[in-house]
Design goal:
Blueprint (H helix, E strand, L loop, with lengths): L4 E6 L3 H12 L1 H8 L3 E7 L15 E2 L3 H6 L5 E4 L6 H12 L3 E4 L2 H18 L3 E2 L10 H8 L5 E7 L2 H13 L3 H11 L7 H4 L2 H15 L9 E2 L7 H9 L2 E12 L2 E12 L11 E8 L3 E8 L3 H16 L28 E8 L4 H11 L4 E6 L6 E8 L4 H10 L11 E5 L3
Parallel strand pairs: 1-2, 1-4, 2-3, 4-5, 5-6, 8-10, 10-16
Antiparallel strand pairs: 7-9, 7-11, 9-10, 11-12, 13-15, 13-16, 14-15
Helix pairs in contact: 1-12, 4-5, 5-10, 7-8
The protein binds L-homoserine.
L-homoserine (HSE) binds next to helix 7.
Length: 428
């Protein structure tokens, strides 16, 4: 295959310009690796006249990304606009309808429309690749789709949002509260245009839903994921968890059970000396567990120009080499529609309570826990705050429904000063 591969790039922001830069600077290397030249034919972005640090006159300009997607002189439509509806989706559909291959970093679009887009593209004989959509520069899609293709995947886990990990690790390191760090992230430009995508766990949930589909051969099912963000994590949770030997992480876990697909993205405690516990700042980590290979850890930059453009380029190179994989690792029309299972897997829990400092308060709480079948492993009471006593309990492994029952009954003891906080502990 020696004819040039022609690209149409929609979106010339940080990632788009990172891709343009690699294509400029590494022509010889790319040709050596693929045996053909890779050329940009045309580009599109919201604003034409903007200093992007490079002259783009050599490329045709399209105001409308749909027109770019439909051009006869491109082979791959590289979608780097973002947003799960609107122009990105419209242009993607136009690209697929006109038989183009698609390379995208758009996790939200694929989490919401991935299955229908995969069905359509495979029917048309085109491919969709999305390495940059999950965990930035970490080659997790290729690891799962190709490197571990001989395994039954047991579990997929990981920290997939760098902004949340930055906030949580900086709370720990500096003793500053959530609100101060949220503000710092806004100033540093770390937050998505809608910050709730980051701190609400949605962005990470999108990523996990894509990994689940490949891992378990199921249709992407983001809507039924158990999802919780980091907004309610207080500095005292970070500090008290650390005191018990844990770190708090926004952790994604997906596994197939007899009851269906369990997918959750929520703040959890992990042992502080575990690989995930030691993950600092904006870094991501994914753990893939296969029945043959055991655990594989992937760690690296989850965002940023170089890392994300590196992932986009890996997809372009894959297509340039003539590799044509199904979007989610097997033909889209064979992906099962897995029922979602709410999380029934037992786990130890961290419970933080603010109790009224009265005789028998702790005994009443212990009785409720015992009656619900929740067994206490460790417990600490901290210095009194006025008339309340902060108490921290780590349970033995318990069923989520037993914990929920206890949490529903604890307020009736009349011993609480504040709503309890309960977080799952994952022994990663
Ligand atoms: N906002 C994401 C993060 C990067 O903080 O990890 C893009 O998904």
């Amino acid at each position: 295959m020696t004819h040039p591969l022609r690209l149409g790039i929609a979106g010339l922001g940080t990632v788009g310009m990172g891709v343009v830069k690699i294509l400029h600077e590494k022509q010889a290397l790319l040709k050596g690796r693929t045996g053909r030249s890779i050329e940009i034919t045309a580009v599109s972005a919201r604003t034409k006249d903007k200093d992007r640090g490079m002259i783009l006159d050599a490329y045709a300009w399209e105001e409308d990304p749909v027109k770019l997607a439909q051009r006869d002189d491109i082979d791959i439509f590289v979608e780097l606009m973002g947003g799960h509806e609107g122009s990105a989706l419209e242009a993607t559909k136009a690209a697929i309808a006109s038989g183009k291959d698609l390379v995208t970093a758009n996790k939200a679009m694929l989490a919401h429309h991935g299955h229908e887009l995969a069905l359509q593209s495979e029917k048309n004989g085109s491919v969709i690749r999305f390495e940059a959509a999950v965990a930035g520069g970490i080659p997790v899609i290729k690891s799962l789709t190709e490197g571990l293709a001989g395994n039954k995947i047991i579990r997929v886990m990981g920290v997939m949002n760098g902004t949340c990990n930055y906030i949580l690790t900086q709370m720990q390191a500096t003793g500053r509260g959530y609100n101060a760090l949220f503000k710092e992230c806004a100033e540093l430009g770390f937050l998505e245009a809608d910050p709730n995508l980051d701190v609400g766990g949605i962005d990470a949930g999108h990523k996990l839903s894509l990994l689940s589909s490949i891992a378990f051969g199921t249709q992407v099912n983001f809507d039924e994921m158990e999802l919780e963000g980091i907004q309610r994590i207080e500095l005292k949770d970070i500090e008290q968890a650390a005191d018990m030997g844990f770190r708090i992480k926004l952790l994604g876990v997906a596994q197939m059970t007899e009851r269906g697909l369990e997918q959750r993205m929520s703040p959890c405690l992990v042992p502080q000396n575990s690989p995930i516990g030691q993950l600092e700042g904006g870094t991501n980590m994914i753990v893939l567990e296969g029945d043959e290979v055991g655990q594989v850890f992937l760690r690296g930059a989850g965002a940023g120009q170089g890392p994300t453009a590196s992932a986009v380029m890996s997809d372009i190179i894959e297509i340039a080499r003539g590799t044509r994989l199904s979007t989610f690792g097997q033909p889209a029309n064979t992906l099962e529609k897995a029922g979602s299972a709410s999380s029934l897997t037992p786990a130890p829990y961290y419970i933080r309570l603010s109790l009224l400092d009265k005789p028998g308060a702790l005994a009443k709480i212990a009785t409720v826990l015992g009656q619900a079948g929740v067994s206490i492993d460790r417990m600490r009471q901290y210095g009194h705050e006025d008339k309340t006593a902060p108490v921290l309990i780590v349970t033995h492994e318990t069923l989520p429904r037993a914990l929920d029952q206890a949490l529903r009954q604890i307020p009736a003891t009349g011993m609480l000063d504040d709503t309890p906080v309960a977080l799952r502990i994952e022994n990663v």
